[in-house]
Specification:
3 helices, 669 residues, Immunoglobulin-like, Ig-like_dom, membrane, CD4 receptor binding, single chain, sialic acid binding, mainly beta, 6 domains, five-stranded mixed β-sheet, 52 strands, five-stranded antiparallel β-sheet
Length: 669
């Protein structure tokens, strides 16, 4: 067994002696198809110092015969001494120095297999193997793509066919779907490669993604492509035609729920996430679907982005939210910093935005609807126009109200009046408070009080306190108020002060005492009168005497001082102090008739006849005492009383029959 192995090694050594010195360069495998040609570029280097090739034999499907110690097979070409360059379909296009190029035309499928080039140069021999791949039809070209094709980046694609042969023209053409693309075809026939290729330079866009790119092999004599290869372009690109779609029904009102979706038409690689703008407290129900709860009036516009390795943003979508007017406010157009009564004032209602824009304006004063219109004007403003004003703006969605605009009107004091507490009538000894009430802006800074005589009381507070109140405080009072704009005056208000129960009791007792005194005087007068009548009746009357007159002067009488006795209460009675008393006495004819005394001026006493000839006249003149009250002793001595009497008898004769009468008259001074 060992001997057999050694023998084989020896034979191989003998067959391939100096093999390391032979060097061949040619393509490892050559491709062709039925009817085409095969071009075999070949270079060699002789071993050692050999300068030329002696013999060349081309075997097809050769093998080594161990017995004959030689190669055998189908000989396609044999050259001895290099004097025969061609034989049949195969041509030797080389030389005896270094070129061993061969051409086979036409190629047949039987050529498929291994060719062997047996070369000899002197004692040096060599067998070179060449592989032929001959198919029935032309093989498909191969499209070589870059590792990644990105949108808008220039790329070069190669269509390669491992075939080329002089004398057999081929070309490669590019087609994108059914559209032919411009390209150039080039051939390479070297000992390293035999090929035909076409390069396509393009700037792909996202629309090329997924489309078919075809490279076709053409021959001038063929009616159609001999072969082709199609690839589907894989163009990396960001999401395309991203749109934000409003799913909620329109129109949308403030406070509604809104649903948005993010759509796109193409993405490579696929979309992995979505982004939304503006960012907020939104709820993404599922990737690409956004729920906005209770949308605000100024929400949006909204946009979304679909993202893979890149993000693509959609165009913003406006929600066109309908809402009530916003930013409603009152713009006061005031000529001065202060508003005085009588000024011209203009209030204007303004708002910042409204959707829809068709609006109406209203005004409220102190919460009560006043009028409609954008402007509220006062040609001559009055204090009654002061208050809180609000402007209302409404549209078909709702109504908005402005903040309150306070309108303050400055004016001089007016409508002053005096109020009395507890009321306008009060009992002496109590407290009485008079308050000066007014209407003024700015408030009254100074007050003044006056009584019923327009006398300034020199009291400058708002309230006038009478503590305690007296009867002499009764009367009318009025006040005056002043601010920096003017002066106002109230009408008089009357304060009535009543006597207290103590005073009334005291004065009642005084009145009762006075009445008792009068009664006593009356009784004394009656008694005095009766006494006088007795005196008159005792005196003898002379019938035919002439009239006599006489005066009686009473003696001065000093009254005891009242201080020495108990004080009495009474009222001043001037009648008791100054009086003139006058009396006339009439005597009847019949002495038996009983005389009657009647009061002067009464209807019960018959009036006397003017023809009466008998009469007695009696007069008393009193001078009044100097003093205010009966219980006060005068400083001067009392005067005397003067009594005057006249008795007249008119002639002689019988007296006419008549009743005796007395007339008494008191004349008050």
């Amino acid at each position: 067994m060992h001997l057999l192995g050694a023998s084989l090694l020896l034979l191989e050594y003998l067959a391939f002696s100096d093999a390391e010195d032979w060097k061949f360069e040619h393509p490892g495998t050559l491709y062709a198809w039925e009817g085409a040609c095969i071009w075999i570029p070949c270079q060699y280097k002789l071993p050692g110092k050999r300068v030329s090739l002696d013999n060349l034999t081309v075997y097809h499907k050769y093998k080594y015969d161990d017995n004959a110690k030689a190669f055998s097979g189908n000989i396609l070409l044999q050259m001895a001494k290099m004097n025969k360059l061609s034989q049949g379909r195969i041509q030797f296009l080389g030389d005896s120095k270094s070129n061993c190029t061969l051409r086979i035309h036409p190629a047949k499928t039987e050529d498929n297999g291994i060719l062997g080039l047996r070369t000899t140069s002197g004692s040096e021999k060599w067998m070179e193997k060449i592989v032929l791949n001959v198919s029935k039809t032309a093989p498909a070209p191969r499209i070589q793509l870059p590792l990644e094709i990105r949108e808008f980046q220039e790329v070069t694609l190669t269509c390669l066919l491992n075939f080329s042969c002089y004398g057999y023209q081929t070309k490669l053409q590019w087609f994108l779907e059914s559209s032919q693309l411009p390209s150039n075809t080039s051939a390479s026939l070297t000992t390293k490669t035999v090929s035909t290729q076409s390069k396509l330079t393009m700037h792909p866009n996202w629309t090329h993604h997924g489309r078919n790119l075809t490279c076709q092999l053409w021959n001038d004599n063929a009616e159609g492509p001999l072969s082709y290869e199609t690839v589907q372009l894989d163009v990396k690109h960001a999401p395309k035609e991203v749109t934000t779609v409003l799913q909620s029904p329109t129109p949308i009102r403030e406070g509604d729920n809104v649903t948005l979706t993010c759509n796109y038409t193409s993405s490579n690689p696929r979309v992995t996430r979505y982004e939304w703008s503006p960012q907020g407290l939104w709820n993404e129900l599922i990737p690409g679907v956004l729920m906005i709860q209770k949308v605000s009036w100024n929400a949006g516009p909204f946009t979304c982005a679909a993202c893979n390795s890149w993000c693509s943003w959609a165009s913003p979508v406006n929600l066109h939210i309908k809402y009530a007017p916003k930013g409603v406010k009152v713009l006061p157009i005031i000529p001065h910093s202060e508003i005085h009564s009588g000024d011209r004032i203009l209030l204007q209602c303004n708002f910042s935005s409204s959707h829809p824009t068709d609006v109406r304006f209203f005004w409220k004063k102190n919460g009560i609807l006043l009028k409609e219109g954008r402007e509220l004007s006062f040609d001559s403003i009055s204090p009654e126009d002061a208050g809180s004003y609000n402007c209302l703006v409404n549209n078909s969605v709702g109504q908005s109200t402005s903040e309150t605009q306070m309108l303050q009107v400055l004016y001089a004091p007016r409508r002053l009046r005096v109020s009395m507490s507890p009321k306008d009538s009060v009992t002496e000894g109590k407290d009485a408070v008079l308050t000066c009430e007014s209407d003024a802006n700015p408030p009254i800074s100074q007050y003044a009080w006056f009584d019923w005589n327009n006398q300034n009381l020199h009291h400058y507070d708002r309230m006038l306190r009478l503590d305690p109140v007296k009867v002499e405080h009764s009367g009318a009072y009025w006040c005056q108020g002043t601010n920096r704009l003017g002066v106002g005056q109230s009408p008089p208000s009357t304060l009535t002060v009543y006597y207290s129960s103590e005073t009334i009791s005291r004065r009642t007792a005084l009145g009762v005492g006075l009445c008792l005194a009068i009664l006593l005087l009356a009784i004394w007068g009656v008694k005095l009168h009766q006494s006088w009548k007795r005196i008159q009746s005792q005196q003898g009357l002379q019938e035919n005497s002439s009239g006599q007159s006489f005066f009686v002067r009473n003696k001065k009488i000093r009254r005891a001082p009242l201080s020495e006795g108990p004080h009495s209460m009474g009222c001043y009675n001037p009648v008791m102090e100054d009086s003139i008393s006058y009396a006339v006495l009439h005597f009847p004819v019949d002495e038996n008739d009983t005389p009657r005394i009647g009061d002067a001026g009464t209807s019960e006493v018959p009036r006397l006849s003017l023809n009466r000839d008998n009469s007695v006249t009696y007069s008393v003149v009193h001078k009044r005492q100097v003093g205010d009250y009966e219980n006060v002793t005068p400083d001067v001595p009392e005067d005397e009383e003067i009594h005057y009497s006249e008795l007249v008898h008119f002639g002689a004769g019988e007296r006419p029959l008549d009743h005796e009468g007395v007339e008494y008259v008191t004349l008050k001074h």
